[in-house]
Specification:
Elements lengths: L3 E3 L3 H14 L5 E4 L3 E5 L4 E3 L2 E4 L5 E10 L20 E3 L11 E3 L8 E11 L2 E6 L3 E6 L3 E4 L6 E9 L4 E7 L2 E2 L3 E2 L11 E9 L4 E9 L2 E10 L11 H25 L1
Parallel strand pairs: 3-11
Antiparallel strand pairs: 1-3, 2-5, 4-8, 6-9, 7-8, 9-10, 9-11, 12-13, 13-17, 14-15, 14-18, 16-17, 18-19
C-alpha cells in the first residue's frame, strides 16, 4: 500500500459543489479539504486543498496559510513552514495562480497527528476577504507486526500503533473468514501518548492463510499476511518405485505372451 490514504467521498463532494457553483446557489469562493487522511509513520503525505471560484469571479492575489489546529504557537504552522515543520513542507504547485493549494508534509511523525486547516487571504475584482476550508484530520500508523509469539508457537499475534480514534479497528481473518480474537487493552500509562497500540491474537489450529487488517470505519488502511503450515502432519513421499512396479506388470506379461507365441511358431 502507498504511504498515505485519503478516506473520503471527496470526489462526490467536489461534484456537488461544482453543481452549486454553476447554478449560482453557492458562495463565491470555496476551499475544499478531505475530512480524513491516513499516513504511514516516516513517509510523506499530501494535505489536499483545492480552491473553487464561481464562474463570474476572477482570482487575484492570494496568500496561503496552513494551520495545525492543536498548535497554539505560530511557529507550529506548517505553511509558511516554521518551527518543527521547517524544511519538511513544500507546496504541491508553486504557481500562485493555481487553484491547487495542497502541501506535501515529509517524514510524518506522531506529533503531526491532528487537524489541519487551509486558510486563504484572497483578492478578487473589487473584493478582499479571507476564507478557509473544513479541517482535515491526519492520522498516522506504524508498521504492522504479525507473527507467531515467542512464548507460544500456536498463538498468532497482530500488533500496530495508530493515532487514537474510535473508528479504528484491527481484525484477523483465516482464508477470508473473520475470526474471534483475544484483545489486549491499552495500558492507562500510555494515555498521554499520541498513539494507541492495538493488538489481536488467535490460536492457530488449521493451516492456510491468515491476514491481519487495520480499518478506519469501512476503509482498509493496511494489512499483513501469515501463511501457517499445520504442525504434526507427516508428509509421505510419492511412492514412485511402487508406481513403476505396477506399470511393469502388464509389460512383463505382454513380453511373455510374445515369447510363447514365437516359440510355438
Amino acid at each position: 500500500m502507498g504511504p498515505s490514504l485519503k478516506l473520503t467521498t471527496w470526489g462526490q463532494t467536489q461534484l456537488m459543489i461544482l453543481y452549486l457553483l454553476v447554478s449560482g446557489t453557492c458562495c463565491l469562493v470555496t476551499v475544499l479539504q478531505p475530512p480524513v487522511i491516513m499516513s504511514a509513520l516516516g513517509r510523506a503525505v499530501v494535505l489536499q486543498s483545492k480552491l473553487i471560484l464561481s464562474p463570474d469571479e476572477k482570482l487575484g492575489q492570494t496568500i496561503l496559510y496552513w494551520d495545525h489546529l492543536k498548535g497554539d504557537l505560530e511557529s507550529d504552522r506548517p505553511w509558511p513552514s516554521l518551527g518543527r515543520y521547517k524544511s519538511r513542507v513544500a507546496l504541491m504547485d508553486i504557481n500562485k495562480d493555481s487553484f491547487n493549494k495542497s502541501i506535501l508534509l515529509k517524514n510524518v511523525q506522531w506529533a503531526d497527528s491532528g487537524e489541519y486547516r487551509c486558510k486563504l487571504s484572497i483578492v478578487t475584482e473589487g473584493k478582499r476577504f479571507r476564507t478557509q476550508g473544513k479541517p482535515t484530520l491526519l492520522m498516522v500508523y506504524d508498521s504492522m507486526i504479525f507473527n507467531i509469539t515467542a512464548h507460544d508457537d500456536s498463538l498468532l499475534c497482530c500488533e500496530v500503533k495508530v493515532t487514537r480514534d474510535p473508528g479504528v479497528v484491527l481484525s484477523i481473518f483465516h482464508n477470508g473468514s473473520k475470526l474471534e480474537t483475544g484483545d489486549s487493552a491499552p495500558e492507562e500509562a500510555a494515555a498521554a501518548l499520541p498513539y494507541v497500540t492495538l493488538s489481536k491474537s488467535v490460536h492457530v489450529r488449521d493451516g492456510g492463510n491468515y491476514e491481519c487488517q487495520l480499518h478506519l470505519n469501512a476503509d482498509l488502511i493496511t494489512k499483513s499476511s501469515f501463511h501457517y503450515y499445520q504442525s504434526g502432519v507427516k508428509v509421505f513421499p510419492e511412492p514412485w518405485a511402487l508406481y513403476g512396479s505396477i506399470l511393469m506388470v502388464p509389460i512383463t506379461v505382454l513380453l511373455g505372451l510374445i515369447i510363447v507365441e514365437k516359440c510355438r511358431s
